[in-house]
Amino acid sequence: MTWSPAQYTKFESDRTRPVRDLVAAITTTPTTAIDLGCGPGNSTEILRARFPDAALTGLDSDPAMIAAARQRLPDISFEIADLATWQGTADLILSNAVLQWLPDHTTLLPSLLRRLAPGGTLAVQMPDNLDEPAYRAMRDVAGPDLMRRAEGQRGTMETPNAYYAALKSHAAAVDIWRTTYFHVLESHDAIVEWFRGSGLRPYLAALDEPGKADFLTRYRAAVAEAYPANPDGTVLLPFPRLFLVATL
Fold it and tell me: Per DSSP, what are the bridge partners of residue 117?
């Protein structure tokens, strides 16, 4: 399953707002920073603006995303890496909208803390929207077989209490919060396009071209029912996200 930088960045302003909020909550000043799952480099760009003197490295497992990031920020080092097994170290590890694709968070997060230098910070943001109508519609349209194949490609979110327990035993300070962003999109078709760059990918990757077309038609109808349009034709997409900042 590959990523499309062009599809992902169709809504770049909305997708980048959460990482701006995440980076604003970092209270330490790193000399080295890792953008773990950097995608096309939009989050790395936010990091550079906040910490211009830090040595930054962007890591991602998808070659197309790394190529897009290198084109966007040619003066920053970007490398292809398996995020689940990366073993480097840094003063700051940032992970924006990535770790939800990986399993076993209560083991993964402490392992990332061990990659930090003394006094370092781990800053994580993850979509927390699997119970939202957009995701329920994906599962309803998919049916049990396709749903099992698609959901197996995404990790399982834990409760805030579980994240706090996993982090606090290793960190001096832990900050956890949840924010729901209301993205103003131009139509129901825009909602479909939004999720084609993220949550719909595992479903569509498992289908042939006619199957994709049928899935998207039925998904669009479900989205239109779940999200009423405003009088001007726009649609509000509520999008909850969970934030974790742990400092050693």
Answer: none
Tokens for 84, please give them: 């689940």
Provide the token pair at 142.
């998919």
Give the whole-angstrom CA distance, residue 82 versus residue 63: 11
d(CA 45, CA 83): 19
Distances (CA, A) of 140 to 145, 204, 238: 11, 14, 19
Q: pTM here? A: 0.92
Domains of the chain, with CATH numbers? 5-247 (3.40.50.150)
Q: Are 70 and 45 in contact (CB under 8 A)?
A: no
Rounded distance, CA 129 to CA 139, Å? Answer: 13
Tell me which residue has tokens 């009088």.
231
Q: Which residues contact 48 (CB under 8 A, 6 or more apart)?
A: 54, 56, 73, 76
Q: Rounded to whole angstroms, what are the CA distances from 9 to 3, 64, 197, 219?
A: 11, 13, 8, 21
pLDDT tens for each residue of 60-93? 999 999 999 999 999 999 999 988 888 899 999 9
